[in-house]
Amino acid sequence: MTSMLAMHRFKLAGLLIAAHTGLLLHLLAGEIKPLAVWDWLDIAGEGGSAVLLLTWTGLLLKSRPAGYVTNLLFFGLACLFFSLFMDTVDEFIVLPDAVAWDGWLESGPMPLGFALLTMGIFHWHREQLAINEQMRNRERVFREHRQFDKLTPLGDANYLKTQFQLALTEAEKDRQPLSMIMLDLDGFSRVNREYGHGEGDRLLQVLTQLLLLNLRQHDLLCRLAGDRFVIVLPHTGERQAQVLAGEVGEAVRSLAYKSSRHGERVDLSASVVALMARDEDADTLLQRLNIAMARAKQSLTVKYG
Ligand SMILES: Nc1nc2c(ncn2[C@@H]2O[C@H](COP(=O)(O)OP(=O)(O)OP(=O)(O)O)[C@@H](O)[C@H]2O)c(=O)[nH]1
Questions:
Q1: Is 0.80 surpassed by the pTM of this model?
Q2: Predicted complex ipTM
Q3: Which protein residues touch ligand 1 with a CB less than 6 Å away?
Q4: Where are the transmembrane segments (predicted)?
Q5: In the chain, N or C: fewer CB atoms in 10 Å?
């Protein structure tokens, strides 16, 4: 919150000064209305809307990076807030008939605000299309933020199950093969132990980027839990899935990840298994993948002790 205020301090200060100046002008030129003539419905409607606009402005600044689009949206909302604030002030202060500028203060910023907001939303829409393109291998069909893991951020186990079910239905309908890859880092707990949990988190984020780079357009990557990832491969038979699994495993081995402590390389390897879906549901498929992974881990223990 403090960093958000610091980053946008000039804009927020400008809005505060504008609102205070408007209020001051009204106080200097007019008189406070007696309580008996206050229109509570108007006060609640206009004042409430102004408060909501301030809330939107706060949420906007808190959730978006600073820049051109954020500025357009901010100034759009700021103009609408100013108009409504002036409208609310008008409910408490009566101005002499000769005064005409109050109409400008109330109505002037409103169309400007809508124009700026429209431009901002248009650019936001274009920005979102570009982000969607980058998110393709993480989201595929729909977005459900509650099912996204905050660290990586990939779909979690629940999201994966939903996607499994959708992919299975689609594969059956199109009579196309569907395969999966499961990847689990070997000895990841050692990274946490030796370098700290923060370093482990960073490594998982780098690994996510690496895996995403190795996927095809229509594949989907999810983080099942901890250091275990699953890739859904539509239109893919088992042999092709095995080839892709080999490539992904090779990519992990080749990753020259450097620790942030002394910059030394952290050697990595992963157990990777690939399976083709049979006539089964999402839970059974996930269970088969987990069993195949347990076997792969077991043979690793036999091999290296
Ligand atoms: N840094 C970090 N560690 C995590 C996260 N989630 C799970 N872990 C850790 O990941 C480790 C997973 O343990 P294991 O399943 O035994 O994995 P492993 O050490 O790679 O062992 P094998 O899979 O048998 O090779 C545990 O130490 C968890 O604490 C996370 O979000 N961040």
A1: no
A2: 0.95
A3: 151, 184-189, 192, 197, 200-201, 204, 226-227, 297
A4: 40-61, 68-88, 108-125
A5: C
